[in-house]
Amino acid sequence: MSDASSMSLIEVRDAIRNGDLTAESAASSCLHAISDRDGGIGAFLQVFDDAALESARAVDRGERTGSLAGVPIALKDNICLNHGRTTCASRMLETYESPFTATAAQRLIDAGAVIIGKTNLDEFAMGSSTENSAFHITRNPVAPDRVPGGSSGGSAAAVAAGFVPGALGSDTGGSIRQPAALTGVVGMKPTYGRVSRWGLVAFASSLDQIGPFGRTVADVALLMDVIAGFDELDSTSSPRAGMAVSPTLSEPVGKLRIGVPRQVRSEHNHPAVVRALDAAITTCTSMGAEVVDVDLPRLDDGIAAYYVVATAEASSNLARFDGIRYGHRAALSAGEGLEDLYARSRAEGFGPEVQRRIMLGTYALSSGYYDAYYRTAMQVRRLIRDEFDAIFASGVHAVMMPSTANPAFRIGEKVDDPLQMYLEDLYTVTANLAGVPAISVPAGVTTEEEGDGTALPVAMQFVGPVGGDEVVLRVGAEFEGGRVEG
Question: Which one of the listed residues 5, 128, 151, 315 is annotated catalytic?
Fold first, then answer.
């Protein structure tokens, strides 16, 4: 029989359908791979061995059916599940057991997927390297001395290492696309509201989106078909219908027009990223696409706007974790009161990066600074959305830009330099600010000299208009199939 740990999600699905693989054997091969190799990577925080095998056996008995019947999937540990723990990789929620399952996760389960476990992340999804987890760091399977990106680094690493063929993460400022790029897999941030956020522990509510990882664009498209669609439990859910792009994914976009922002031809790009961008333009031209220069004048302003909006919303969302209503409660000494309880509980429960972002957000929202920071950031956000709207109104189907300016950096290299870490999100935050869909697709590797002996992945992302999720998936699939090596 085939080994599910070496197969794409589509291949696993088809093998189970055709009887070449049982759901139980698919789950077992993934669980064995995790047991054998995850000790050196740290992709998972929890693995549901018994529950996963029983779920798989139910598929083999014909009791569970659907488009993902028997396919092993991992969930980022800020997505609620009604068994195991939902920790957000934080001491604050170290023992939290959710009484409910997130809508996106439930849709996977209803489609027959087998949930293998919960993956590591930067605490409360705040970070770009998965070094900020309260429990352990995650290593890049391509080069274990390098980060896998973040904050969904555990999900990206799980797919890249062959532990699971697909996974869900969340993307607030690039937290799916950046780790997908650094580990050499495909990752997608849907249009804001296209996938329900109900059951996703909130970081920045106007930016957060759940999205899929896979080894191919087709894998990601199938996962999107399952998890997308309106949810009455999520007040920000789009009334747009669900997706069914997988059956027509191979159909090219007619008279395809791709825009490349002049601003992404930056001197700060790694040489491998420069080569990959040039090769990607050649690929798009060979696909018959018209490649045109476009402008995103406020691309560089996106980082500043994002880190005001996101931290302000984090400050508000995380106020509930005070040791009284939710989260870790500190032990008090004699004579200490309520303020001491709040302060100590939050100091013990939150790590340094989460505390930093709460303080930044609280400052931006404080009296006398709201207009100077938060209101200004929201105005910049509107301008960025307008710039994307203008590009798409000109007849451009998708904007192409690097997913990251650099390949994976070394563990420990930037964790003590918040500014340099924040700049890792340069090419990803604008899609979140504008609420548009974007997919990261592998686009090349570094040379051995550039990667110190290891070929490190680099990637391109395709950004579409609001609601254009199907378009970016088709463009991504066409690019993936016709990529010219740089």
Answer: 151
